[in-house]
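Comment on both lines for my students:
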Amino acid sequence: MGRNQISYCILLAILLLAVPPLTNATLDQATLLRQFIASRSLAQSADGPAETDPWADPKTSFGHLPTKCKNPKGSKEADRIEALPGQPPRVNFEQYAGYVTVDEEHGRALFYYFVESPYDAASKPLVLWLNGGPGCSSLGAGAMQELGPFRVNADGKTLSRNKHAWNNVANVIFLESPAGVGFSYSNTSSDYGLSGDWRTAVDSYTFLLHWLERFPEYKGRDFYIAGESYAGHYVPELAAVIVAIRKFTGKNPTNLKGIFVGNPYLDDYKNEKGSLEFLWNHGVMSDEVWAAITEHCSFGPSEDLLCHKAKASFQTGNIDGYNIYAPICIQEPNGTTHSIGYLPGYDPCINYYVPAYFNRLEVQEAIHARVNTRWSTCTSNLHWHWKEAPVSMVPTLSWLVRNGLRVWLYSGDMDDVCPITATRYSVQDLNLTITKPWRPWYTPANEVGGYIQQYMGGFTFASVRGAGHLVPSFQPKRSLVLFYSFLKGVLPPAVSLWQP
């Protein structure tokens, strides 16, 4: 290892130690992803290139996997939720939750929460939602803070309806993955040190096979995978497993039609470059610091100490990386929390309410979870030895597009964790021909919801105006419009219906 690499490792170790320790209760996707990026950079500098990439040839790597599960266990009726504690009156859709064992030998089981549509569920597609981290819960974030039918109230005991929930237009599964996240677990403790992209994808695929046996009415139903953040890895990789098996065996157990990924983490180096450029573009970083970064940094695997000093030479201040214009949550010494500002429809302290809710015994019993589980939205004990994570997801995305899958990426334009600037760099790397150029898209309320562009093969990239990292939290109406357009396979309206 050269002097520059040694200096870099020392600097990075100092930066990691400088991060204040956080309990799992206060961890969120942004914090966890940044920890992951730092640990990944340190490992790459110390150990050299990553292990062989299993995603280079998905058909060879995954085509041999089974197309049906052996000895399916569990039942739909056993997983039915009578009512969630504290739910509002007149809930008009079915809810289910429970475990699916994906490895009998190790006792590895994944927890899911499933909500059917209140409107003609039998005709609606099936959607699997995955949150990122790696190590964050789709139940705690996706279901209870973003696109699910409920939001947890400030008392940590009751729920309110989300009228812009995605189950208005689809039947949605929220999966806690990998084992060790949320209520998902393994009886073999060494499993937690073997987590990575490969195992997460294969376990998620195994989950789907078993789940479809438990809910056979969804076999053959149009199926989509959606997610955000590090699900920029999870979603394309699970899709690659499914497409590879379909190509290898000629069988189609899940009827996958497309993927829909928001504010995705796609490229180690492009994400870092895009994040710093975003901060400069939005006035958080000075021109002088940005000039020093662009002079000394190549945004590749080999950076010298001058680059790392330049990147460490400014402060963002106490702002929310998820949305640099959103209010933040303050926790007082007595444990109470409050927002320092106001953003309509958004409560930055909800990350405290959700753990309080899921750590209630009556809630754990109602959703058929293992009782007395110490549940947290995110866990930090999985990613330090994370395995099989490609540096870039561009090759996998390109492979999926070439194989006819509907692929849409979208970005809330106020996020610095996985910013729109970074996603644009990866979209450029796909090198696809533009078929429908960049233009505004409108909601039924005649407001500009964002901007959108389509490419050869149907690949689509969209922004959601005024949204942060968790797009459905910040812009629930706009996210639902874009999601519905994705399901229909048509771009949202190009013109406003309102005329002055």
